[in-house]
Design goal:
Helices cover about 15% and strands about 25% of the residues. The protein is α+β, with helices and mostly antiparallel strands. A 5-stranded mixed β-sheet has the order 4-3-7-8-10, with no helix packed on it. It has a 3-stranded mixed β-sheet with strand order 5-2-9, with no helix packed on it. The longest helix has 19 residues. It starts with a helix and ends in a 32-residue tail after the last strand.
């Protein structure tokens, strides 16, 4: 019984320390990405396309080619502060691959955001619209070619088509002059 009282006393003494300690800040290191994978020649949706940042943050497109890659969320603790996560955001790449198509690599920092400032404490969402994938020539293996690298992807200008240019669609509530960067 005495041991129980000692443990209970220690727990009661620790309670104010635990109650006063600030929880680590939750950082949304990347935005949530969504869109639809489409064959650039046939305009047909592509199912089972793997989209990933890491093994932990990945998804596959459904039977209609649609996908949603959730934001990478991490917590600020000790040496992991906002600067640390901003560096990850700056160099993060979203990889896209499926058999029979050219692989793509998108730099996350190069994707146009719905607002000019990226607040890492809230989730940002980017609708990529149609992401066109190029079929590989007959007999060529997906790993036989390097990734098609897209360093920047701005919003589509009025005369641009996603089929011809890697760009993000402007939402129906905005025009190309209202989004940033463009």
């Amino acid at each position: 019984m005495r041991r129980y009282k000692q443990i209970a006393s220690i727990g009661i003494l620790m309670l104010p320390l635990v109650a006063c300690s600030k929880p680590p800040t939750e950082y949304h290191v990347t935005p949530t990405l969504s869109g639809q994978f489409v064959d650039s020649q046939t305009e047909q949706p592509i199912a089972n396309v793997t989209v990933y940042l890491t093994d932990e943050y990945q998804t596959s497109s459904d039977s209609t080619g649609n996908f949603t890659l959730p934001a990478m969320v991490s917590y600020g603790v000790r040496k992991r502060n906002k600067d640390y996560f901003e560096r990850i955001y700056q160099y993060a790449d979203v990889m896209v691959e499926v058999d029979g198509y050219q692989r793509k690599l998108f730099n996350v920092d190069g994707l146009a955001l719905p607002t000019p400032d990226f607040d890492m404490t809230t989730t940002a969402a980017i609708e990529m619209g149609k992401v066109y994938l190029t079929p590989l020539p007959e007999g060529e293996q997906v790993y036989g070619k390097v990734y098609e690298y897209i360093a920047t992807m701005s919003y589509c200008k009025p005369n641009e088509s996603q089929r011809q240019v890697d760009c993000l669609p402007v939402t129906s509530s905005q025009n190309s002059g209202q989004v940033s960067p463009n």
